Amino acid sequence: MAGKKENRDGSLKTFLLTFLVCIFSCFIAYILWYLFRRPVDVAPPQPQSVEEVRIVPPVEVMPEEEPEVVVQPQPEPEPELPVQIQPEPESEPVPEPQPEPEPEPEPEPEPEIAPVVDIVEPQPPEEPPATEAEEAALPEASPLAPLPPAFSSVEAHVDEVIITGSDAPVYDDDFFASFFVSGSDTLQYDDGLYYFDYLVDGELMGTLEVLFQGEERLMNTGELRIYLSDLLTDEAYALLLVDGVGDYVSIDHFRDNGVAVDYDETAFTIDMTFGVDAMPERVISLAGGRGRRTFSLSGATTLEPDFFSWRAGYNLYTNLDWTFDSDVFNWSLSLSVSNYLNFGPVNFDFFYNMSLRNGRFDFNWNSYRFYYDFIDQGIRLSWGNVYGFGLSPSGTPVGIQFEKGYGYGTIESPYNSHREYLTVTEESYLQIIRNGRVIFTRTLQPGNYRIQDFIFDSGFNEVELILTPTRYLDGIDLSSDAVRNDPAVQARLAEVSYHQYFDMAYDSQLLAAGETLFGGSFNFGRTLVDVGDEASATGVLLRVSPFYYYDYHFDDITLSWYQDVGLTDEVTLMSDFSVRTYKDHDKDRTVSIGDVSLSLRGAWQAGTTTLSFDTRLDSSSLFAMPDIRLSLDHSFLFDWQYFRGVSLSLGWSNDAYNDGDGDELSMRLSFSGSVGFLRYSLSGNIAIAAYDFTRPVWRLSGSVGLSPMRGLSLSAGMTVSQGISPSNRGVQVYGYLSASFSFGGVGSGSYSTNFQSQSLSTSFSVGNRDSFALNISGFEFDDPLGHSLAGSWYHSSDLASLSLRASAYDHYNRLSLSASLSTASLFSGGLFGMSRSVRDNFVLIRPFDSLRGADVQVARSNQGTPVDVQNFLGTASYSSLSTFQRNNIVVYVTGDDEFAETQTFAYELTPMHRSGYSLRITVPQVYTVTGIVSEDGVLQTTFSSPVYRLEVDSSGQEVLVEDISLYLFADQDGRFIISGATPGTYVFDYNYDGRWYAVRFTVDELADDEIRVYDFGTVDITAQTVAGCAPSYGALVDYAGVIDITAARMTDSATFWNELFPPLSVEEIQQDFVL
Description:
- The chain is mainly β.
- Helices cover about 10% and strands about 50% of the residues.
- Among the domains are: about 175-295, PapC, N-terminal domain (Ubiquitin-like (UB roll), Roll); about 310-360 and about 755-825, no CATH class; about 830-920, Immunoglobulin-like (Sandwich); about 925-1060, Immunoglobulin-like.
- The longest helix has about 35 residues, at about 1-35.
């Protein structure tokens, strides 16, 4: 009987292995077919791989030329033009422009229409072209209005994205674009670097650096080469960007060589239009310009990171624990510190903690790591405590590793490699429809086009490109779904529109064709050995603490490598290889282990399938069967709310993989959905060991949830399972019920039960800084005091966060109290700051001199509202910066005086990984100058004047220089107020009795920081002494003399403004509001 059972098991094992091999073979065959399959682009009646659409004017065919089928319409009573679909020259056949083959209609008389649209394929001639009569000409439509520009880049996958294009998109993100300039016909810019949006044929390419030198406008040659290298012909590239071209090239250089340049200094855009001879192919990106996120702030000061910066996070934790019945008391105090140092391009991270437990002190240096980023390649090189990929040595390994990733530099993940090509010789309207939804529209001018960066939905995508000459669209708005789906419109456009199709299966976990990510490592083991236990060490000892050694195991080394490759846009190959060699000191032998993991993931019409193979080879059992595991996972995609998220997994592992427990088969199935407001999910898995179907290990879980009202959520679930161990051979049933509720964001609570014990928790917040929580768990009616009770309080400030927690359990026989304090410190460029938490990059801002102690706010240039930043001992810190991207920030500094003006500073910075910046802000002391002007006691209320600074030129003569930031005018009381005057001598113009006088006054820097106002009182011009005027003054105005005035008093801002505008009392305010 035993022999029969053994034969039966062997036959069953053979059958199952054969079945799995067949599944794997079918899947590999399908992947290979899908790998070498080209997407089908259909232009009926025959498919083609790459198509070109050429819209050309009609060509009259003479009767004596080679025979062709030409269908002439019958003449109408009124004279009309014949309609013909003419072929191109002999070398190219002409397919019909219908999406599907149909019988040709009989020619009928038709009204006059515009010239013909011919569809031309770049293929060798196969058969004579077919022709048919067109329908009546359709009216021409006006172009679509462009959408406002998007400030953020589109992700690699966005569901239901609609991107609407137009002939000339307008981009206007310049910080100063909203400023109104009055009294000047032209804008004036200082010399320096500015940043423009760069467009080619209306398509945004990115940001372009432009150098202003007087009247010259010079573009950065290096950036132009990056944008245009793949678009221009070799001859045009050499002519425009190589021959005789320096670091910067003028706009006129492009214009002189036949390039149309639309330069807009107000909108800060440069749009170039190249001829077909220079740019044979134009690029349309459906993802939009990624360079949009790197736009610059015109006129901003560029900040460079400090060579050294240090960011550290601290967590102080203490715990007190009492056990009353045994009179046991334990306490502990620990400090964990995370340090992140930057030395130019090299970063150094190290972590340690100190603890004091019941009087015993311990120090532990946890780990350290150096790393350097190759920014242009997106590769990070790390050395120190690195764990590698796959197998790892003992303890905390030490070694070196490298890895390519999109977070390590400026490279970006490509959307996909799919391209569509069109050649258009007549203005046409392009629509791109994905799964029945229009995602892109654009009016195309004649030229060759490459359409790329398609954005797909997860699952199967059917994409249609429709090209219609605009002369047929007058009065037809194809952007409207109702108009586009109108059968009459579709029938009329079917004859004149070109349709191109392709399909694509997409999954966000797949790589684009040709895309690759990889990494490798080499490391060896390192363990800890306590002082006094040196005899247990098996490697090289290094004393690093009064309490322990590092034990380096140079005989325990690991090599690992992984690589993911996009074979196509729909298939990705993932591979992992690792080898470990170590010394088995118990058996005095060297053991080598090798792990190999291969996975092939592909997306197709039915979803995403992943085929995986894992094996391990061990030198200790070299001739034995290696560990093997095979798995097949598939995720079905259903766009149906009642049934979605279906996944199926099949697996097999051999006896060696399962440590001698026999081969194992496994299967898992899960799905979810919703019916109205009821949500549900079901999952089940089963494992069969040693092909013994009488003892399966299985588990079945299900859950439902609903929200009957806002703020209330109910859920229930049940799990039924059966194990294989002797203690778990029977069927186990577990169920639960739970309810959660919230109170408008202020508080929340939850209740759950598994029918044996109950749990109840609640929490509420007080403002944005404090929150409280209370939790009762493990409550049983048979043992009411057996539960646990815990309460906590959390407080958050700008500089730190604090949490306190108290808990009681074990029938209230044990009490535990704990507290945790977290904060962070920053150092860069000699400045020190504190904050509650810090991101990778930060800026320390220190106001000096007259701004000392001022409030600081910072705003990103693409965000409207500035935010208050943490201030510690006069230094503010800001860390909302993006790595490897150009960041534009505006800093607002307001003095502690309630009447102080807000100073604004704009900066541009491009941080690498964990960069620190130091910013010292200071401005000269500024004062307010005020007074009242009269003539013989009559207040002068209608005069105004520029304000000049009195300076000394190189020859030593006094000259007047107009200060455009200051201006003087008198109000209805004759009072003038000049704000923002720095120390110096000033002059303004005054006309008396038909003659001009220079009124001169001096503003001195005062020792008292509170005194900010020079009050000249009432100045009677007729009572002033007139002095002689220096000849150099007349360079601006022919003055009759100079009148010197002096301040009647100097006071603080609060006194002056309260005298000028007395504040209302409470009684006056109440009286004003009495009806």
